[in-house]
């Protein structure tokens, strides 16, 4: 069981605030003139509203254009004098506190040169902000405001100064992960019928919605029913986009009540996209049959306004996996009944601080609040099991994470000629395929993405396409090097982090698994599951070629990858060993445990890989050196060691690879040093590959097969393939070559 004190939870939120502020404070403290000169602050002139694209157009100086697709905060000065007089001497913080009349979040979508002006079209402006603008108004654009108020709200809810028992029951509860066994539901309409029959009497209901299983469809039908029953409903989620998708689904229902759906921070594009949607008036109060769509931030803000008893009949948390305990407590404070719709196997809340475990060893209760809550609470729990998004093949891949409980009812492959037109680098049955890239030459990957996306848009100009990265640095690289090249197609191409797109559905997806020094981060189960399940047609997973040698994934993610097609003649099989069941935690380092150096000269023990009467030659794979740099010193001098030239070549590359952690790079350097010393101290050889020895079916370009061919040279003398690569082990065993893993080898050593 896990439990956190209020002090620990408040400390967690405070550390989030500190981390966010530390990244933002230097920007706030900078003078506006310095930010303008560094092209980190922008002044635009309001020109017009682009009715065709539903975007707001501002003109800028040619050399002071903001980048597109980067979140910004637009501020309207209190008067024109604010900019005309001493604006340039202000710090940005002073300007925000003293010179701003109103503000809105936004982001640029496209560039345009028109009548000698350099224009940028923007999306996501609040309607209220737009209504305050006049042609010619000067607007200041700075980096997007961080979500600090959300965390302050969570602190207030956790303190629970209104002394709500419901809040304390959640905040101070004892939680475990042992009892999440949802009832499987094939058709979400069946769940609606269950609600009518008996679920309406339940205070809490949890619904797990794996990718593409119609969570939005279900919620929209439930909202229609609740509105007809004259219930007041608040629906909250982390991001705005899923609220719009929900509104669209709701208004597709013929019998749905019109004029009752309101949304906070309604934007111009949203009013065009869902014309029946209304902005929330300032004096908005819950009313019979009304539906309020809002964000976690806005919902928690309402919850801290001295509310002591529920004011809504229902509160529905969409994408509930991204909620904290405080978020769930806020929902409980506001709603007489709550429905949590989410998936413990998709994204948890975003955590910015580096070492939250310093607060408490049980801090994962904050990092995976919904997962713990859903497992512990005694209430009806359901899992939707029919996916309508992707093909049967994609469903087989995603089922890796869902005990094969999902079934595909997608018509994506029926009478659809798209699969016959796309490049062979995609899976022509739908789902994911793999493509390796050279991280020392990212230009090639940018060129490939540009060419592939242009080719897809030639097949269908209306395709929606996303390029996702696990890291912000990866997103910046992609945006800086690609986005401007798409011209007027920019609004069809989404480039963002995986953590920002839960709920997204597009046609094609590229997952750029860019490590930024932490390879396992891209392959954490929840993040990987979201990244690989966004596309209706195909997802191309872009992997650093270093991962052929050192694989940073394991468990269910490795099993998923083994089900993906491999391209560019880099195919190799992957078989999964038994691993720890805790896939929610990324490994501290990829590979096997490193054991301290042992003096073998004191001990003598028969080893299972040794054959009497043979020379017994150890051939060591690259991944072994990464995990155990001094492995040669642990092999008895009576046995020979032969190194494939390919292994030396790979190690030389790995020592500077950006895809390895600092610890792994140090290990590679140590390994190279040990090998160099071993050439002088003992009888080891470096041997080049003889590809003619390989069976005809084997890929002659595979690095593994280069190493395997060296072993085949010595087949009569019991070559011993020392490798932790399952694929290489299988090939070696198939050719009657002795194999042993590093883990098995080390276990044989006596201390």
TrEMBL record:
Pfam families, per database record: AAA_12, AAA_19, PIN_4
Signal peptide positions (record): none
Domain of life: Bacteria
Limits of the PIN domain: 616-730
PANTHER family, per database record: DNA2/NAM7 HELICASE FAMILY, HELICASE SENATAXIN ISOFORM X1-RELATED
Family: In the N-terminal section; belongs to the PINc/VapC protein family.
Protein name: PIN domain-containing protein
Species in which this protein is naturally found: Paenimyroides viscosum
Organism lineage: Bacteria, Pseudomonadati, Bacteroidota, Flavobacteriia, Flavobacteriales
